[in-house]
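Bench notes, bay 3.
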Amino acid sequence: MKTLQMTVSPLDAASEKSLYEQVADRLHGLIQNGTLKPGDRLPSVRKLKQQLSISMSTVLEAYRLLEDRGVVSARPQSGYYVKSTALDLLDEPSKSSPPRQVCDVDSSLTFRVIRAINDPNMVQLGPAVQCMENFPLNTMNRLMGQVLRANPELVHSYGTVPGCEELRREVAKRMLNAGCSVSSDEIVVTTGTTESIYLALRAATQPGCTVIIESPTYYSALEVLDSIGLKALELPTDPRQGMCLDALETVLKSGQAKVCLLVSNYSNPLGSCMSDRKKKAIVELLNRYDAYLIEDDVYGDLGFSGDRPKAIKAFDTENRVLYCSSISKTLSPGLRVGWCLPGCYQPRVERLKVVTNNMTAVAPQLAVAAFFANGGYDRHVRQLRRTYHSRMERMRQAIQDYFPAETRVTRPQGGHVLWVEIPGKFDADELFEEAIRNQISIAPGSIFSASNTFHNCFRLNSGLAWSERVDQAMQTLGRLIKKQMARRILAED
């Protein structure tokens, strides 16, 4: 084991981040890039205090934050050490290789699975939902009450099609964090991200068109494609870096499709996050081949490092990116407040909004705008990132402890879902049925593909608070996986 001598560079007193968060991020970066390895001892509290000219309480808060993130552990009378976690022991899935063919989309299986995985009696490892305790419910309820009292008539009106100016103004401010300088007039408020994607697809395509998607992709996106009568073309996707650019250029150059739909930051289900270089390259491809991108950035605020990655929209020079997001994963899924920056398709999106549901409810818009404006959102999201990181590490550790040694699992740096792959002729659809009988829901990999692939994969939701019931569910899944693998080995002999 070795002890690190920290590079002495000043902390930024003017940063929005506190000093302890800056210290934690600096150490976390050293762990992620391999400078600090599992088992290495971190500098003592006293030494780090002297090196960085900060208080002992700041150092302790930084180390506690790293403990919450699941990357270090304290040893009595010894200090803090980098943990040996499942992150180091489990292999990652490889880049996907879907069939290079246009597929009709059939989401009938998805609807059946969703009915099962949303059963409240189940241990909810299937749907990408969060505990209500993760959200500032009391604050939001208080703000809703204030909005209703202050606007007794306005909240019952139709409002405007683009949405309340107060919310659009606050969203425009928040877009600066994603690298985008936009005006409130460029934003259309929607009833969640799914409606944003629906409106964007309706605006940019015609029934029968082919849309380029990731492989695997979020099953709700497939449902939308199916409902509009669109076809899908899946492209190879890397669990860390996202869609393969060479494959994207080949398709765009061929003219097979002109519209692409993807999740840019901490995608669902892989958790991939594209680099800025790759995001810029995608925009260059759009410009070169006269194509358009629908960007789902609903997880962008949930990066574990605390640095919010840029949106692809930040590099958009010709209004070819239709940006979609919401508060459903960070603040409240039930308020159904989202937004779309439709770019050159804004007039068409606004017309489609009128015939879809006319407008988004006024009261939730004003409550969310108030929460954004008073600074509560930033404080809440900082805590949420730590919570999700800790829970993901705990679930990854359970996979290491209970699943077969050859299991592969993704290593997201944000969000709250994990993609699990069992090599060989494993059948995740069969596991799904067996898990349901044990009151456990998972999301089988087949529903994340238009080409009916990923039968040996499934998605797990790590956003739940860890409990004995969740731990027992993970143990049960591990036993079911091992039993199925044993049956298949016996059948082959």
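Next record in the batch:
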Amino acid sequence: MLEEEALLVRSHPQARPRMADEVRLVHWWVSGGEAAALDVLKQNLAKEDLVFNDTPIAGGDKLKADLKAMIIGGDIPTAAVMSGYDTWNWAQQGVLADLSTLAAAEDWNSAVPAALQKFCKYNGKWIGVPVALHSINWLWINTAAAEKIGLDAPPASMDALFVALEQAKAAGLVPLAIGGQPWLMATLFDSVVVATNGLDFYKRAFVDLDDAALKSSDMIRAFQNLSRLSSYADPGYSRLNWNDATDMVITGGALLEISGDWAKAEYRSAKKKADVDYLCVRFPGTEDDVLFNADIIAMFDVEPDRQSAQTKLAKSIMDRAFQASFNDAKGAAPVRMDVPDATFDAFGKKALADVRAANSNGTLIGAMSHGYIQPTGIQQAYFDVVARVFRSEIRPEAAAETLAEAIAAVK
């Protein structure tokens, strides 16, 4: 068990010594746009005279596996990027630092939405620093492709979305760009569930795990919409990663994609301008809702001589100016609600305004697809059923019952 293995870290003979002024960050920011955002952090740390030891690992699953090997081997990084319940999983092993004193001194409790704080704390103690608040229910449209098919405005309803996709298909375009990983299909389905049945239903089904909601005709309708959407994907979608799908929209080979706001960094990297080269609006039917995930930098329990550098890293991440510049580059909203938006572009202003409004209205909710509602076992059951529907391996009419059974088996 990892808990038993982690107890050996402090005395492990192969533990790797670290310099006191070194910050080693394990992360999954490997795309072009993500690298540009990471440069903002590197520059800030350089001002603190810290040595940045960059440890990029592509893919969340590989990062988890490699990080576990590091910890067991005594090679303890300063911090690692995590998401959702992963922070709690590591906190349960007793290997994360307690940042509560710093959090109190800088009043993080007032600045960070409570819905996000839940995953940055464990047993009331701050164990990680949120760096980017992403929302997943965005619709990205290539304007040249839209003009080609006579689409004058973004679809305002699910019916209008299907009309646009059909027009793109008739024009020889890929209607819907999407990658082949289950988490991408589940990301799409989160928006579809809310658009089809509303946020209250989404909460009953995925927060409360209400069996009646999971098995309901409403859930069947959502799966029917997902199945219909899958028919507009590129035939080779299974070979694509998320950024490949985004590139299809950027280059005009595809009309649109449903993606989180991390896609903005790719558009910016390609020198594309919002409202000129592309449009980005909320998925139709989710305009007042923000389904979020976040990048959380969990801090490990490091030796006393390394704690000063770790504290500087945490303070740098929560700095208002850094939050503005980093998230403007990455495409996310700041995790602090008190960050001014004066330097943001139109998309950034809207993203932050949406988060602030949702935070006030109670419509800021974690994304089931990204581990911000349920633990990994339930999330994986969700992935499996959603992917099977998208791949036409199971009919929508049977999927609701199958999903309820799969969740019941692991909860």
